[in-house]
Design a protein that fits this description.
It is built from 19 helices and six strands. The chain is mostly helical. The chain has a domain at about 365-425. It has a two-stranded antiparallel ribbon with strand order 1-2. The protein has a two-stranded parallel sheet with strand order 3-4. Helix 8 (about 205-215) links the parallel strand 3 and strand 4.
Length: about 475
């Protein structure tokens, strides 16, 4: 179904202004903000009369524009920026209008403006990131000792706690935040190098001018402002894609874990929600499949931009169009993902009883590694592996339950009794609870600064705990 229909379905979500980030008023204002910074910087440096700079800057407001005049001009010029330049020239008058857009080119304004919009949107995305981490921190601490089955290749592996699983999600989000912060330094940059990036119109004053524009806009600047350099934007989009993959993973796990066969995790239920027009009992994971769908959409955008970044020579119109349209699509997709992920983890329902019941389905064989290591103390690890493997295969073939098979091994009776006690008490091996408590506290108390990789090392917590 079309965009209008999907927009109606998503109206229940709080996008925090992200849906308007690339709307026409925001884009026009961003382009005007660039033109304003250009004029002010050139006025300060004596490149244009300071009086003209002041007049130009004063008219760089969206509400000053005659939109009907702009629409007519677009049909006439068939150019992405000239109508706006002509409108600004008209507003400033003949005395000052001649200094509008002095020594720069269209892509300088459009690319810088789009990245300025993305930078503004990223501030909102950062807020969503922080909220997601706080919600996950709460789950990690609340479920530090909630026992469940870890699964590798979709099969039971060893017992863990749900808090540990959440701690893993937190670490991936923190890694994603690290990557984004690094990518932002290179992505959110001003490009005002003119026709091909060598300041052909402004000469040796050009670099100082660009630095001042960057400062006025609160952005970085390209070392060589070439219109042919696109990889910094790809890096940012790829960092967003990797962040989306963490949301995607959580959504996939909840999606599957919510099925009747698992029943361990469920989306929060909103009163009145309908799952199916013909199956009234259905409660569908609508947040999850929205995250999955938009994640795949974002991955496609990232691939598209990567496949375009190599376009030759000093500029390429097809590449420009791909990146200009693609950046808006990317911010839209990551917004859809993070808004849904924040709701998903905020209201996530955890069923500890079902987790425990599912763990018991393996009748103790989930402690196979533990059994192997205990036998390995006297028989060697490899011999212990062989014996426990044989016991597990015999149990799977229906000869007798795993713990009975284990009891036949040397020292097995005591080991089987030990595992039965662990099952009864919900006791597990490893340091799941420690990871959950530590990462839970890191995420629940998240501030503007992301904890460094060194600060996230569990040894910090273990040394303090001693």
């Amino acid at each position: 179904m079309g965009t209008e229909f999907n927009d109606a379905l998503a109206s229940q979500y709080d996008y925090r202004g992200l849906r308007e980030a690339f709307a026409a008023p925001a884009l026009y204002q961003a382009f005007l903000d660039v033109e304003k910074a250009v004029a002010l910087a050139q006025g300060e440096l004596g490149m244009i009369p300071s009086a003209s700079a002041t007049v130009i800057a004063g008219h760089c407001r969206y509400e000053c524009l005659d939109m009907q005049r702009l629409e007519v001009s677009y049909r006439t010029t068939r150019h992405p920026l000239m109508p706006l330049i002509n409108e600004l020239l008209r507003l400033c008058g003949p005395e000052h209008g001649g200094y509008v857009h002095w020594g720069i080119t269209t892509q300088n304004v459009i690319q810088t403006g789009l990245l300025l919009v993305a930078k503004r949107a990223q501030t909102v995305l950062d807020g969503l990131f922080a909220d997601i981490l706080r919600h996950l921190g709460r789950h990690a601490r609340n479920h530090a000792n909630t026992v469940m089955a870890a699964r590798t290749h979709y099969r039971h592996a060893v017992p863990i706690t749900f808090g540990f699983k959440v701690a893993v999600w937190i670490e991936e989000f923190l890694q994603a935040a690290d990557r984004l912060k690094e990518a932002e330094k290179r992505a959110f940059v001003v490009m005002t190098g003119g026709a091909v990036g060598c300041f052909s119109a402004l000469g040796r004053e050009g670099p100082a001018f660009q630095s001042r524009v960057a400062a006025l806009l609160g952005m970085g600047e390209m070392a060589i402002p070439s219109r042919a350099i696109r990889t910094h934007m790809c890096e940012y989009v790829n960092a967003l894609s990797l962040a989306a993959s963490v949301c995607h993973k959580i959504a996939e796990e909840v999606y599957q874990s919510a099925s009747e066969e698992y029943g361990e995790l469920h989306e929060g239920r909103i009163e009145g929600t309908i799952g199916s027009s013909t199956m009234p009992q259905k409660i569908n994971p609508i947040l999850c499949y929205g995250i999955v769908a938009n994640s795949n959409r974002l991955y496609s955008c990232a691939g598209m931009l990567m496949a375009t970044a190599h376009r030759p020579f000093e500029s390429d119109g097809s590449a420009n169009q791909m990146f200009e349209d693609g950046l808006a699509e990317v911010i839209n997709a990551i917004s859809e993902i993070l808004v849904r992920t924040e709701l998903l983890v905020r209201d996530l329902h955890v069923d500890p009883a079902r987790m425990r019941a599912n763990l018991d389905l393996s009748h103790g064989s989930i402690f196979g590694e533990y059994a192997m290591m205990q036998l390995g103390k006297t028989l060697g690890k490899h011999r212990g592996h062989e014996l426990v493997h044989d016991a597990a295969i015999a149990a799977a073939d229906g000869k007798s339950p795993f713990l009975e098979e284990l009891a036949h091994l040397p020292g097995g009776a005591q080991l089987a009794s030990d595992i039965e006690g662990r099952l009864e008490k919900g006791s597990i091996s490893g340091i799941c609870a420690e990871y959950a408590q530590y990462y839970g506290s890191l995420a629940a108390d998240i501030a503007e600064a992301i904890p460094t990789a060194e600060a996230r090392n569990i040894n910090v917590y273990l040394r303090a705990d001693r």
